[in-house]
Amino acid sequence: EGRGLGLGAGPLGRGGAKVAEPGSDLRSPFSAVCGQPRLTLNRLVKGQDTVPGEFPWQASIQWRGVHMCGGSLINDEWVVTAAHCFFQVQNLTQYRVVLGAHQLLKPGPSACACPVQRIITNPRYAGQTTSGDIALVQLGRRLNFTDYILPICLPDASVHFPPGKVCWVTGWGHVRSWVDLPSPQTLQKLKVPIIDSKTCRILYLTNMQNRLPHRNIQDDMICAGYAEGMRDACNGDSGGPMACIVGDVWVLAGIVSWGEGCTIKNRPGVYSRLTSYQSWIREYIPNLEFVKEPKGRESRAVADIKGQKHPGAGSPSQAASVIANTLLLLACLLYLI
């Protein structure tokens, strides 16, 4: 099932987000760097509430003024989200994207409500739990970046998100199954570790109910969360970001896609994997840059993973082990003599 659909988030109150006026030029006069919030933040604060400007790429996609899905700003005129948010695209004038909001019911002067010019869903998407659950939303005009409105970086196809890597999911969705986020609906965050696809497939086969169809984890999906349940992407809307730090910047690793209920044991969150869609995104945004893994960090991460399975024949640790075993054997022989 999709994540966060049927949310309790209501329409924005009057005097909230600023509406971008037709014909106004909101283009930024400077070149902003993606994935780098400008405000100094304490990310060790207890609880799930974010602070203003902590995740400045977070978007609220609204239909007739009501929050419907989350999204992520990726440059000054494009937002990426889930395709299932637009399974039946209706009149574009009924949609708007709110950026810069911290409390959804009290967006404040830092927020901006933008009209939607175009919605592009991936052609592979054919319904819930299928591949291709990704969509691009083109805003009606370019944005002016601020401390509260900044894009997140997109990962190059070569970027690896290893199992156990800690990432963050954000959104205004349910705090538990069918429990609305209380007013004023402050943007929530949840720390989740990456789960490898093989483990995720096994978890979804565990305690499977006959009434539910088999849900396969495809190559363009990435799992994150906790096998024991308790914490899940209910704290993030459908289409919202799963952001990870790569090098020194925040990178969009996944888009909240689907799951089985919320906080259910053996049912981690499933996300659309951004590295699978670099070519498709470039078809519509050819000048968009993708972040590569920093040299050295990538090699160390890959070496650590490979080293655990296939230790090098000439590694110092293995050589030391051979020497120690040889000395032990000699000592035994001398004792027998």
TrEMBL record:
<dbReference type="InterPro" id="IPR033116">
    <property type="entry name" value="TRYPSIN_SER"/>
</dbReference>
<feature type="domain" description="Peptidase S1">
    <location>
        <begin position="44"/>
        <end position="286"/>
    </location>
</feature>
<protein>
    <recommendedName>
        <fullName>Peptidase S1 domain-containing protein</fullName>
    </recommendedName>
</protein>
<keyword id="KW-0378">Hydrolase</keyword>
<dbReference type="InterPro" id="IPR001254">
    <property type="entry name" value="Trypsin_dom"/>
</dbReference>
<dbReference type="GO" id="GO:0006508">
    <property type="term" value="P:proteolysis"/>
</dbReference>
<dbReference type="InterPro" id="IPR009003">
    <property type="entry name" value="Peptidase_S1_PA"/>
</dbReference>
<keyword id="KW-0645">Protease</keyword>
<feature type="compositionally biased region" description="Gly residues">
    <location>
        <begin position="1"/>
        <end position="16"/>
    </location>
</feature>
<feature type="region of interest" description="Disordered">
    <location>
        <begin position="1"/>
        <end position="22"/>
    </location>
</feature>
<keyword id="KW-0720">Serine protease</keyword>
<keyword id="KW-1015">Disulfide bond</keyword>
<dbReference type="InterPro" id="IPR001314">
    <property type="entry name" value="Peptidase_S1A"/>
</dbReference>
<dbReference type="GO" id="GO:0004252">
    <property type="term" value="F:serine-type endopeptidase activity"/>
</dbReference>
<dbReference type="InterPro" id="IPR018114">
    <property type="entry name" value="TRYPSIN_HIS"/>
</dbReference>
<dbReference type="Pfam" id="PF00089">
    <property type="entry name" value="Trypsin"/>
</dbReference>
<dbReference type="InterPro" id="IPR043504">
    <property type="entry name" value="Peptidase_S1_PA_chymotrypsin"/>
</dbReference>
